[in-house]
Amino acid sequence: MKFFITGGTGFIGQALLKRLLEAGHEISLLTRSARGREHLKDKVRLIEGDPSRPGLWQEEVVRAEAVINLAGASIFSRWSKRVKRKLLESRVLTTRRLVEAMASSKDGPQVLLSASAVGYYGFQGDEEIDESVTHGDDFLAQTCQAWEAEALKAKEAGIRVALMRFGIVLGQEGGALKLMLPLFRIGLGGRLGKGSQWFSWIHRADLVEAIVFILDHPEAQGPINFTAPEPVTNAELTRALSQALHRPAMLPVPGFIISLVLGEFGSILLKGQRVKPVKLENLGFNFQYPSINQALTDLLP
């Protein structure tokens, strides 16, 4: 199968590329610059271009059978006005240009898998959230709404659209776990705030397999939660990490400190969502790592 992928050099993208290449698929990868990507040249077709702007790169999109959109600036920083604009535009404009290219040819791609996030739901306390729950109204929720709205425009051209609402992705080489481990390894970890906020997570290997699964199931479309079936609270995650590393975790970080240092982004860490992967489970997807202890046992040998 021929794929066109954005965001393929990131934490999730690298693992997905490896999986698709092992399966024998042909991949065109959009990158702003091929410099530093020489190790990929023998494996994928590198396409240079700015995904947020129209360009020659769009001609490559119509040659693919499926498009996977993982592009978007990292949310892990203090959100100034400039950063918030970058977070929004990197998602909305890239998706808009992709859909424009896909819809320009009847012989173009027939499926779009576009990343989103569980931040779509906003903060809903202890409520269990499935794909039918409405959106929130904070900045991240509004960003996800705008992001998804651009992807859904592809439906007007008869293209199947799956909105992949990612939870916090756990893996060895990056993501949230990479940020958390240094302090926990030296015994300085602890819960964030009260620790009662929900942490909807997924092992990176399960996420990649879920993407492949969705590609193989044409009935899968619309919003799909990419989270493990057993979300945990921040306090439960803290205990699990402490036990997995055989280190104490008795230094909680007060909520006001997180808010002071991280500003608006701090609310993401202090509130969270209790998200369930109802659509994936109803479709018959089997998680290899359904519990946080199973995931950490694999990731922290």
How confident is the prediction overall: mean pLDDT?
94
Total helical segments: 11
Give the CA-based shape.
globular
By secondary-structure content and strand pairing, the structural class works out as: alpha/beta
Report on the architecture of this protein.
- The protein has 301 residues and is of the alpha/beta class.
- It has eleven helices and 13 strands.
- It has helices at 11-22, 57-61, 81-103, 139-152, 175-185, 204-215, 234-245, 255-262, 266-270, 278-283, 292-299, and strands spanning 2-6, 26-31, 45-48, 66-69, 111-117, 128-129, 160-166, 168-170, 198-199, 201-203, 222-226, 232-233, 274-275.
- Helix 1 (11-22) packs across helix 6 (204-215) and helix 7 packs parallel to helix 11.
- The model has no long low-confidence stretch (mean pLDDT 94).
Summarize the structure.
Helix content is 39%, strand content 17%.
Short key terms for the protein model shown above:
301 residues; alpha/beta; two-stranded parallel ribbon; 11 helices; 13 strands; 39% helix; globular
